[in-house]
Write a structure and sequence with these properties.
It is built from 26 helices and 21 strands. It has 837 residues and is of the alpha+beta class. The strands form five sheets. It has a seven-stranded mixed sheet, with helices on both faces. A six-stranded antiparallel β-barrel has the order 13-14-15-18-17-16. A three-stranded antiparallel sheet has the order 19-20-21, with no helix packed on it. β16 and β17 form a beta hairpin.
Length: 837
């Protein structure tokens, strides 16, 4: 394919190369320092010109698409035209995979945008003008309109994606001043609420060890779990716990050379906590790190320089990089691949940055302190205080910048419940912004900023669209509701090219950060709960309260999540629809083509629901710190002075797996060691697990750190998480694309294996009445707490169907899983397993 495309496009390549050389000569004539090309292109006027020209080009494409799509041509001719355009998209997609020329990539991108927009608008125009079920009754007409709106939503989001991804920006990092006193002073805030100390310690240890002039930054622990109100509450047990937390965190801050700060009461949640710290700080800049976001040593060195020459710069945001798996990856045993958040941080934010609309994400960011204070601090009118604060700054003319360089190591929510709490907060918070601080009513924002902030809000409406699409097959197959009046030939001409072009676009933009069909699993899981919460916010915009996302949880058993119950209902309805559809095929005069199409749709939805049930079958999680695959040279030093060369296989701030040569003899569990990483970096440890054979002549041992001081903990954290280059390599190692067909096979396997396993465990315990009584009781209690009770702090939902270990079959792990304080190996390896209490 690449050879064919090379031959076809060789004449165009020559023309493009000549054009690029002319542009380069033109810019060099304006600015003779070629190395300053990127700086020249970032001059505000040049940026504005690029934005205006891109917007104008997109506008022309839209107008041309609308005009061409509404031209009626015979179906046969339309099929030929669609086939040609899809073929061109495939050729350009393959051409773009290996072309490095910026101009050629942009030509391919604009052509793909035009073709996909044409297919989308052509399909919607046809659906709206020729397929609506008029004359089939009010129910069918209403249902048909709802389905059309759901499909229109998908097209709108497709066009927003084109707009966002037209020119992603990658910034070059300027240098810091040579003299320390010329560097801006920075206050590093670590807000905490109810997190465990073992979540806070590595972030604190990394923050005090930042590679920045020591006299120019101060680290603060902002504690909302030990406020005066909590320490003097009427419940003596809770008051004692708050007092102890306050004392322990204050002692911890002193031990690491940081400052501790609390307040009278935790009003306005995280925003109020940060604003309290802001009132006590005197720095030029403020760096904000969630307490589970461990920064690399160069975090300030890479972010602060952007503020030196741009007085209107308010924010430098960096990606949220996660080193632990989210519940979907963990519970489905997904192969190592890109995390769900990487699409936003690696693709969407750089695209938003081109339009001057990248925004504060609550952590891993540096903000200009005087500007933040002039705004009254972090905004608190909504529960997405970060995006709200960005809008407040932008409407005053301040700018933001997104630096696409991973420099924090964070934790994902460990349970489905924790993940849903987080996503519900994001979705309802963005809807609050639209209702309480509508971007279109904010003076000072540009039209494109208003449009793209609307996109960020509209995105969360996927919950309603997903539910409408889930209910469409049952409506037709069970109740006989006509949703669309069409024929197979029309679907082939209009729907098929639209779906194919959408898949090509998704692969074109997101192939390294998102696998096809996996996004739909995430959306299906979240849709019901987000839709319920957003419906409540529509009527009571000020009702949501900030809820802390649980992190660092310890799960010691398998259980079925309380959030499974809606998917039992949806799965049952879809299965009934399939049975009814098969029965309809036997009826005389049945529309076989229509029934088969909807049956295929119902089967696909059933697979999505099975995959979601696989996710809600929670697995044990006995770690408090994630191990990352990282190879580092070291020396093992025994008490008798013997020194053995070794190399880490994976590592965390609390332990590591180390490979040594077998020739050094037998090693006993519990043997004390000292790890020498060079440059006076030593860590005391002991052997906690070992493997008889690993990679030929090597022996693999697991060591548990036994640090003798805070300095050793700082060293351990710096070795595991301190290098941004290590994070870059880890990110690259998990970013690999999958073909559409390969992703489909993976999705089907995950759904069938883990969804069926969930149902098997459910049915195997169906006779035990106490599980069902506890499920119903917990369902009523926790759903009421989660969605309808106000002014109550969120707590992790208790597992409501904890299954006995004896009733569970062992779940096969595809790869070795290294857990802190334990070592669990793939069953095929036959490795010794040791689990510490």
């Amino acid at each position: 394919m690449r050879m064919l495309s090379s031959l076809m496009f060789q004449p165009f390549q020559i023309i493009l190369q000549k054009f690029e050389r002319r542009v380069a000569l033109l810019i060099t004539s304006v600015n003779p320092y070629k190395s300053h090309w990127n700086i020249f292109l970032r001059i505000p006027r040049i940026e504005k010109l690029k934005q205006i020209s891109s917007a104008a080009l997109i506008g022309m494409i839209v107008l041309l698409v609308v005009y061409l799509a509404e031209i009626q041509i015979p179906l046969d001719n339309q099929l030929i035209l669609s086939s040609v355009l899809v073929t061109i998209m495939l050729l350009l997609y393959n051409w773009d995979l290996w072309r490095s020329s910026t101009t050629s990539k942009m030509l391919a991108r604009y052509t793909i945008i035009f073709a996909s927009a044409y297919f989308g608008w052509k399909y919607l125009y046809w659906r709206a003008t020729e397929t609506m079920p008029s004359g089939y009754g009010a129910v069918s007409e209403t249902a048909g309109l709802i389905l059309l709106l759901a499909e229109a939503y998908g097209f709108i989001m497709l066009m927003f994606n084109h707009l966002v991804n037209i020119h992603p920006i990658d910034h070059q990092i300027p240098p810091l001043p040579v003299h320390d006193n010329d560097c801006p002073s920075v206050d590093v805030f670590i807000p905490t609420y109810n997190e465990e100390y073992e979540v806070i310690i590595p972030t604190l240890a990394a923050a005090v060890n930042l590679d920045y002039p020591k006299s120019r930054f101060i680290v603060w622990i902002l504690d909302d779990g030990g406020t005066d109100k909590k320490c003097h509450q009427s419940d003596s047990q809770k008051a004692e716990a708050a007092q102890k937390r306050r004392s322990d965190l204050e002692q911890l801050a002193n031990e690491y050379g940081a400052r501790y700060l609390t307040r009278a009461a935790n009003e306005h949640a995280k925003a109020g906590n940060i604003n309290n710290g802001l009132a006590h700080s005197q720095g030029d800049l403020v760096a904000i790190l969630d307490c589970d976001h461990i920064p690399t040593r160069d975090f300030l060195r890479n972010t602060v320089p952007f503020f030196l020459d741009d007085t209107k710069l308010f924010l430098v945001q960096t990606p949220h990089n996660f080193i632990s798996q989210d519940p979907i990856e963990k519970n489905l045993d997904m192969p190592r691949g890109p995390g769900e958040n990487e699409l936003f941080y690696d693709v969407m934010q750089p695209g938003l940055d081109f339009w001057g609309t990248s925004y504060f994400c609550g952590s891993a960011a540096v903000l200009r302190a005087p500007v933040l204070k002039s705004l009254g601090g972090i905004a608190g009118q909504t529960i997405t205080e970060d995006a709200e604060t960005t809008i407040d700054a932008m409407r005053l003319g301040y700018r933001t910048l997104y630096l696409n360089k991973a420099m924090v190591s964070g934790l994902q929510p460990e349970t489905v419940t924790g993940m849903i709490v987080q996503r519900v907060r994001w979705g309802t918070g963005m809807l609050q912004i639209f209702l309480l601080k509508n971007p279109w009513l904010q003076k000072g924002l540009t039209v494109i900023q208003k449009l793209l902030y609307t996109n960020l809000i509209v995105y969360w409406l996927f919950a309603y669209s997903r539910l409408a699409l889930l209910m469409a097959p049952p409506a037709y197959l069970i109740f006989g509701v006509t949703l669309c009046h069409t024929t197979p030939s029309q679907l082939m001409v209009y729907l098929a090219p639209y779906l194919l072009s959408s898949l090509i676009v998704a692969q074109h933009y997101y192939r390294h950060v998102r696998w096809p069909f996996i996004s739909q699993v995430y959306e299906t899981l979240q849709s019901i709960f987000i839709a319920m919460s957003m419906s409540k916010v529509l009527f009571r915009p000020k009702s949501p309260n900030f809820k802390v996302t649980p992190k660092g949880e310890y799960l010691d058993r398998h259980f079925l999540s309380v959030l499974s119950w809606p998917f039992y209902l949806l799965l049952g309805v879809n299965m009934l629809a399939i049975v009814c559809g098969i029965n309809l095929l036997q009826q005389p005069g049945a529309r076989i083509d229509a029934i088969m199409f909807v049956l295929f749709w119902a089967v696909l939805d059933t697979l999505f629901l099975l995959a979601v049930l696989g996710v809600t079958h929670e697995k044990p999680q006995r770690r408090s710190s994630a191990r990352i695959p990282l190879s580092k040279s070291l020396i093992l030093e025994y008490e008798n002075g013997n020194r053995i060369p070794a190399r880490t296989v994976n590592i965390s701030w609390r332990g590591a797996a180390v490979a040594i040569d077998r020739q050094y003899g037998t090693i006993q569990l519990g043997t004390p060691l000292v790890l020498d990483f060079g440059d006076d970096r030593y860590i005391h440890c002991e052997i906690s697990a070992l493997r008889d054979a690993f990679a030929g002549n090597n022996l693999l041992i697991s060591v548990r750190y036994k640090p003798q001081s805070a300095a050793e903990i700082v060293t351990a954290v710096a070795i595991a998480y301190g290098s941004s280059n290590d994070l870059l390599e880890l990110t690259r190692s998990r970013r690999h694309s999958r073909s559409i067909f390969g992703s489909l096979l993976l999705f089907i396997r995950l759904a069938m294996v883990y969804g069926v396993r969930h149902l098997w465990h459910l049915l195997s315990n169906i006779s035990i009445g106490r599980y069902w009584r506890s499920m119903i009781q917990a369902l009523v209690r926790e759903q009421k707490r989660l969605f309808f009770r106000r002014n109550e702090r969120n707590e992790l939902l208790e597992p409501i169907m904890a299954l006995p270990a004896s009733s569970l079959t062992n779940i096969h792990s595809v790869e070795p899983v290294i857990l802190d304080e334990e070592l669990v190996w793939d069953k095929k390896s036959g490795l010794h397993e040791e689990v510490m209490a």
